[in-house]
Structure formats: C-alpha cells, structure tokens
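Morning!

This is the sequence you dropped in the shared folder:
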Amino acid sequence: MASAQLRCIPASSATRTWTTNPGWSRQSAGNPASHSNPKRFFTVLLFFACLSFAADDVSITRHLNLATGVTCPGNVLHMNATSSDGTPVPDVEIRLVLYVPYTGFRGLAHTDADGYASLELSKNGSYRIYIYNTTLDHDKYVEFEYPLMCPPPPPKQMNVTVEPDCESLRLNITATKNETGEPLEGVFIQAGNWSSFTGNSGQVSVPFEKDYVYIQAERGNYTKQEFYFDARCLPPPECVTGSDCDGFEFCNAGGNCENITGACGYPENHTWVAYGCCEDSDCGNESMFCGNNTCAMKPLPPEPPEANITNLTNATNAGNATNITNMTNQSNATGNESGPGEEAPAGPCTGLILPMSICVIVVFFKFSAWPAST
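The structure's back. Tokens below.
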C-alpha cells in the first residue's frame, strides 16, 4: 500500500508577507513591487496544492487480474492470479460455478505461491469464476466460456497381479501402471463377493474361498481388467516351462512333465524331430524309395529278355571255342610230357585221329586219280 503526505503552511504563518500595490503597473520598470509578482504566483499554487491533499494519508489500491486457459486431454482449467504490477497473488480463493446450463457449484481451489490454481471441468457450458481476496481490488467474478469438451484420450493399460495367502485365506491384489510399474491409486477391485478401492500402495486385501475367483479392476481412463484366478491352493506344479523336464518330455498345461510322441521321428530337446521318411509313400514320388529314413531314387529296371538270349548265345559260343582250344593245348602238353618208349595216355580226341587220317588219304588219292579234263 502506498501513502503520500503533504504539509500545507498557511499564508499567515509565512516568514515573509507582502501586499499588492493597486497602482502597480507591469510596465513600471525599477519599481520594487515588481519583484513580488512571482511570490504571488507561488502562494496561489500552494493554496491549490493544499486543497488537493486535504487528507493526511492517501492510499493507492492495486487491482487483481485472473488469466484462464484450458488444456486437453483432461479438460483442465488453468488460472493465474496477478496484481496490476504483475506480481503473483497467492491464497486467492476461487469458486467455479456452471451458470448455463445452471448446475451450481463445480469446484473450489486456492492459488499457490506462484498465483496458480487448476480445476477439472466435467461439463461444457458458460462458467463464472468467483474471486475472493481481501488485499486487492477485483471483480466479483470472471466469465468463462467452454463450449466443447476435449475428446476423450485413449484408455491406458493397467497391470493387476494376485497373490493368495492360503494360510489366512486372503487375496492380495495389486494394481500398477503399465508404463512405469508405479502403484495405481483409486482402482475399484472386486473379487468374488468382496470389493474395495486401492490406496497409495495400489493394493487391496480381501477374503476368499479355495476355488476359482472372478476378479474385476476398473478406473477412469484405464482399460477394465477381468479374469478368473485359480485360488484352490493346490500343490506347486511339477514344471512351469519345458526346461524343468527331461529332454524327451514337455511341460503340459497342467504343470506336469509328459513324454513327447509323434510319427516317424524322435524326441530331442523338448520337441519332436521328424525323419525325412519312414515309408516309400512319404517321398511323394513313385521313382523314389525310402531308405535309412532318407528318400532316394529307385534302381533302373533289368534289360528285356531278347537282349539276354543274344548275350547268352554269344557267351556260350565264346565259351565253347575257349574249351576246344584249351583241350587241344592240354593234349599237346600231355604228349610232350610222356617219356621215350612210353605211350601217351589217350585223350578225349585220341580215338578220332585214325579215322580222320584215313579219310584224308582216301580223298587225296581219289582226286589224284581223277582224269584231267580235256
């Protein structure tokens, strides 16, 4: 608050007084009365100054200004309170009223040390922002138009985890933000016939019976979660993943290790490895067959019978000639081996030599005795 004081001295108490000569003329040079003219002007000026500052104290009151704006998504009304000299104004009470269509009071806020406050708008329409402050001059309210609401943002994802305490028969349910994993407050959790809201820790604890429990989790701007939870408190499963079983086994849906089976193959590393084939039909081609679990081309068919007979005849003739030659060589060899004075043993052709010799001689003499033609 600014104040100013001005002390007025009456003319009667001045240290110097003067009177105006009625016969004084402004043109009378050298007249001593001519020096009193400025003093007269100062006296008049001082008189009007005293009239202007009749009060001892003068107060100057600053004015309060309120700037508004809305951001989307969220339909958040932002307000900044400042004085006429631009400084922030803290602790200004703000009441929000929806005037058209009239629904009355919609929110209350106070400005912080920076003169800032915010409220969430739930409906569109014409608003009045009522201002309350005792130190600054201000309007009673500020009008604010909000014709359209922000488009709804896409829903966020939440994670819901459940841990059963089978001794106390209570379900400990936790809701967290999918993006950061932070606890999510204000989530409505319903488990069976029990329900509650999550607190700052994002958790609730509700009773349960050993059975499947239907769980729902809801919160504004988040996707709804619905699922059944197995709260039967059964013994821990034999396996969770295939690595918990032997290499020829897999982990089934019931948490038990089970043998891996299949057709035409073998189990290895928790899976079934198929052979290339087990039967000829697996090769998919009539010209191929399956051998050692691998498809291969079938051998060529045998040659026609005619070619076999010709080959057999040629082979027989060649064999007979070879036999005769061998027999002759054998006979000669046998004769050479016999000693002097010893008869050579008769070979297979010994009985034919004499008749053939006689035939040759007869034929020779016959042609020799034949008369020559003239």
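Headline: Helices lie at 37-52, 305-337, 350-369.

More detail when I'm at my desk.
O.
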